[in-house]
Amino acid sequence: MFKICALVACVLIVVSAEYYEVEHEEYEAYPKYKFEYGVKDPHTGDHKSQWEHRDGEVVVGSYSVDEADGTHRVVTYNSDDHNGFQAHVQRVGHAQHPHGESYSNIEQDH
Questions:
Q1: Strand 58-66 relative to strand 46-55: parallel, antiparallel, unpaired?
Q2: Pick from 43, 44, 63: which is nearest to 52 by CA?
Q3: Kindly report the CA angle at 57 between 53 and 63, in degrees rounded to 5?
């Protein structure tokens, strides 16, 4: 008796799945959004921002960040089906490193 009930349950599941596929229609969403954000924390020195717009398969955006060496990095980018992803990176300012003892002069524990 148990084998027959299990077989009937399997047949019902297969029939239900086939019925669902007949009724199921594909839906493709059209992606479209805009966002932006920024951080400017004078306590930690964390300064960055980003914005991005998407309309279908075309994405355009930019982000910027203050680097630890004192420079400011700005990246603009775009992406689409024809050209793929392309980015332009710009570094503004001159790198400055704090004066101090070189790592080569610090005693190492081995």
A1: antiparallel
A2: 63
A3: 35
